[in-house]
Every structure is written in C-alpha cells, then in structure tokens.
Write a structure and sequence with these properties.
By secondary structure, the protein is an alpha/beta fold. Helices cover about 40% and strands about 20% of the residues. The chain is globular and about 60 Å long.
Length: about 325
C-alpha cells in the first residue's frame, strides 16, 4: 500500500504515472483541500477533482485541469447574466460540483461525497480529503488577503506575497482514514506539489505531521523545484514568502523532520551533493514529466527507492500509457 500526499498539477501528473505501474486499489491519496471554494453557490474542490479525473481517465491533458473535451456553455451563459467567470468550470465539470453540493447539503461529509463520486466514475484508488473541516489557504498580498484561487487563477499570481496562512487549520481534524493510511503504508510519498500551498495545508491539519513522524514506511518527497525554479506556477514565490529558499534545499527544509529520501532532477546534481552532507538521502533522476513514459518512469524510481520488490515494475493489467 502506497500513501501519497498530493495537490496541484504536479501531483496529478505523478499520480497519473503511479496508476500505470501499480494497482489502483493499493494507492491511497490524501488530497489538499485548502484550495476549495464556493463558486456560483456550489462546493468546488479543485485538487480532489483533478485527482479523480486523472484516475478515471477524464482529465484534460491539454489544460492540466478539468474534463477533456468539455464544453463551456454554462460559463458563457453566466457571463451574459453578469456573473463572475474567472474560474473556468466546464459543463461536465459542473455536474460533479452539483452532485457534491447536493450530497453535502444532505449531510454527507466531504469524505463521503468524494467516495460516492469516485465510485460513480469507476475510480479504484482511495481518495481522501485531508480533512472534512473547512481549511482555507489565504495569501497575504499588498492589496489584502486573497483566497488561493483568487491569487492563482483570478489574478494569475502576479501579486507580491507577504505570507501564507491556513485559516481553520488549528481547529480541523484529519478526515477518517487519513492517519491510518499514513501509519500503515509501505511507503509515504509527497508528490512534486507546491510545498507551501499544496502539501502545506495537509501538514497543517493537527495530527497529520505527527503521523508522518510515526509512519512505519519510508517517506520520500519528489522536488517540484528544478534548477532553482519551480517547474510551473508560483511555488518559488510562495516558498520564499514562508522563509524557504527556492531550491531543493528549501524542499528538504519544508519536510526535514520526517523525510527519509528526496528525489531531485538530474539538473540539480551539484546541489544534491551539497545537500547529502547534512540532509536526507538524495537521488537524482529525471523529474520533469512531459510524457506518459516520463510519468511512469518517475513513479517506478520512487517505488524502487522506498519499496524495493514490493511492486511490479511493469504496468498493471488494464493500465494505459496515457490518458485515453
């Protein structure tokens, strides 16, 4: 059993590789919900949706988010009615938000709603929100505090960042199954996700970081920083705002109290040599995932490092080389 902490596009790409090389039933995903928002009165969970769409073969490869081949008629109509349209929900994507919102209104938890949606879409892996409590990533900027989606999507992460906080985290509890998944997994993987706003909210939920310290399996992180810069997005800006250097050393520092292995790109081999002297064990490989083969190769490297012979290095029956 592999437990993965994930969020963002880098995390979704890694999960896409992982599903190619091991049975989905043996994967548990603990997913960031700090980006969740109410949009047109509907509850939207962007990172849970991306992971669900990857595992069901529905994710749009071109955009890296949303449903492949989706239409945007509702978005256009809402714009004509004078409603905000900066968050681009497609029509098929909207159906998932409608179902989730109905389930939550009926009294189900976010975990229960996620399980229902996953089952309906044929997902075999276990997808767990980090918490059923509301935790919101808030980005402090010179124009005021913004939700993560306002900062990232609406304003294209152009604002300088003073700091980041996770509103509601101190009162939150891990969702059912989260702690057990971490404690009992053969390995725990931190996907190549933003350490501050994708993994940070997960670790901010009381009890989760403590569970990482007690995990029986090895813990490995894949760096989203390559050559001193993020592969995509504002990870570097956000890391520096939180006092972390935008480097593989900064990634190691974010996880230093529990990390066993750090996987970095071959372009960081010199920096890796320096990090090995005082930090975790570091392995260099290609971490930039441009193709399906890249994703699968990275997943195999991670599993070989922490699990040895516990998994098959060949794609599982029914696995595909890329999203259909």
């Amino acid at each position: 059993m592999i437990c993965v902490l994930t969020g963002g596009t880098g995390g979704a790409k890694f999960v896409d590789g992982l599903r190619q090389v091991m049975a989905a039933e043996d994967i548990t995903l603990i997913v960031n919900t700090g980006d969740d928002l109410l949009w047109w009165g509907l509850y939207v969970s962007p990172d849970i949706d991306s992971i669900t769409y990857v595992l069901s073969g529905m994710l749009s490869r071109e955009r890296g988010w949303g449903v492949k081949g989706d239409t945007f008629f509702c978005l256009q109509a809402m714009g004509q009615l004078g409603e905000p349209t900066w968050f681009h929900t497609g029509d098929r994507d909207l159906a998932v938000h409608l179902l989730r919102s109905r389930l939550l209104a009926e009294g189900k938890t976010l975990s229960e709603a996620t399980s229902v949606i996953s089952a309906k879409l044929g997902v075999k892996a276990h997808i767990l929100p980090m918490s059923d409590s509301r935790v919101e990533t808030r980005v402090d900027t010179p124009i005021g505090e913004l939700s993560f989606e306002q900062y990232f999507v609406q304003r294209w992460y152009q604002d300088p960042v003073n700091s980041v906080r996770f509103a509601g985290a101190s009162d939150a509890e891990p969702a059912s199954g989260v702690i057990d998944a971490i404690l009992t997994a053969d390995a725990v993987v931190l996907a190549p996700s933003n350490p501050v706003t994708s993994i940070g909210p997960i670790l901010a939920v009381p009890g989760i970081r403590e569970a990482m310290l007690k995990a029986q399996g090895k813990i490995v992180a894949v760096s989203p920083i390559v050559g001193g810069a993020p592969v995509a997005g504002p990870a570097g800006i956000l890391m520096e705002a939180q006092g972390l250097p935008c480097s593989i050393a900064g990634v190691a520092q974010a996880y230093e109290d529990f990390l066993d292995f750090l996987i970095v790109d071959t372009r960081d081999s010199e920096a890796a040599e320096q990090l090995r002297k005082n930090g975790p064990r570091v392995q260099c490989t290609q971490t930039v995932m441009r193709t399906a083969d890249d994703k699968a190769a990275l997943a195999r490297t991670v599993l070989s490092l922490v699990c040895g012979g516990l998994y098959s290095s060949e794609p599982t029956a029914g696995a595909t080389s890329d999203l259909p």
